[in-house]
Amino acid sequence: MGLDGLALRRRAFMAGTLSSIGLGATSVARARPGVENHTLTVAPADIELAPGIMRRVLAYNGQVPGPTLRLREGVPVDIMVRNRSASPELVHWHGLHIPPFPDGAEEEGSGVIRPGETLRYSFTPNPSGTRWYHTHTMAMMDFSRALYGGLFGFLIVEPTRDPGRYDREELLAVHHWDASLAHTSSSPELCAMLRYGFATFNGQLMSAAEPIRVRKGERVLFRFLNASATETVSLSLSGHRFTVVALDGNPVATPHFVSILTLGVAERVDAIVEMDQPGQWVLGPVDPALRAAGLGRVVEYADIPRGAPVWRQPERDDWDYGLFGGTAQTSARTIRYDGIFPMLFERHIDAQGMERWTINGKSGSELPPLSVRKGGRYLFRWMNLSGCAHPLHLHRHNFTLLARSQRRIGAIVKDTVQIGRFDTIEASFIADNPGDTLFHCHHQLHMDYDFMQMIRYS
Ligand code: C2O
Ligand code: CU
């Protein structure tokens, strides 16, 4: 059963999952009673970043981001995904606790959609919150593929009871365009870096997008998603502060004011802004080069005289996960774990000068899976021995941050966390969703080069 040279699978998990290919690749489109239906089509589309700046990328339903899917917690859905592209595709529903087959990771044995075929993803969405969906293909050195292109969108799981105390929401997904390799380095202090031509919220440069129009006194919930393939972003709304209410869609223990939000790849931040400073302001990245690359939105109050939107550089970087977790437990000793997993991340340079990643000295393809049993509680001890940050992601489960940089922090529930260069994180998780589970770095250039490990239920 060849894939006709359309290399899709990561080298890592060649064995064992081939049998899944084509399993669900049928086009039984009949609606099932009591089940919500959605359809996504993967096809090339011409996306206009600004007048005269067109990019041809793979997109869902001809738009970037793809349509926002609003699902209801606990209400089953069938999502038909048609693949009108020239290569196999999978859609991953990032942050949902669903079975491996619809999860959309080949390593977990998920269904693969061959060109011309349709796959039905059936699952019951949970937990509620800001999730997202995206392609789970690999790009290697082809920077037009995978998450370098346009295959991502918001997926909001509406809670059965909405606790939201806000007047309306704005969804903003960050993406970077026109990637090329800036440099690789053999120095252990550095990692390979990409250069990008443009950066956008929702596929549009600030100069081309309509302002976000607000009224004094309004409370606006911003849902930010970093859908970049590789880049971390720090954002600020001039003249205002954000109250962070959820991280990766999960409500935080102690909502807190900050002037800067930092999102590693795949992270989400929900933050409420009280609109109390009439004017015309720039909501944008603190990095001026990124603002020049187009990332940002004008926030414009009603009934004010028109002028030039104002950017104000925040005085200091106040972003810190630790702010939102409540009181830290003084000791982890009181908790009994069914297993502790130390994981050491290292960077290597191969004979071709390419960067490779290992966990505890082994590449993804050589690593045995971590073994868990249903209902068990486990502790990850992540140690980053490389000179760049990594957005670490666990499929199909949440984890709870307990410590960072050897300092205990209050519990924060996430599915992706940015580990700093030469830094450490401790996070616990409960094995409550049986089935093969992928752990990986969400930086596309790292995941494609082996930064991953499987977790298997015994
Ligand atoms: Cu957001 Cu393995 O993915
Ligand atoms: Cu990484």
UniProtKB/TrEMBL annotation:
Residues in coiled coil: none
Classification via Gene3D superfamilies: Cupredoxins - blue copper proteins
Signal peptide as annotated in the record: none
Gene Ontology MF term list: copper ion binding; oxidoreductase activity
Domain Plastocyanin-like: start-end pairs: 46-160, 200-282, 350-454
Pfam families the record matches: Cu-oxidase (PF00394), Cu-oxidase_2 (PF07731), Cu-oxidase_3 (PF07732)
Superkingdom per UniProt: Bacteria
Protein name, UniProt field: Multicopper oxidase family protein
Organism field: Komagataeibacter xylinus
Organism placement in taxonomy: Bacteria, Pseudomonadati, Pseudomonadota, Alphaproteobacteria, Acetobacterales
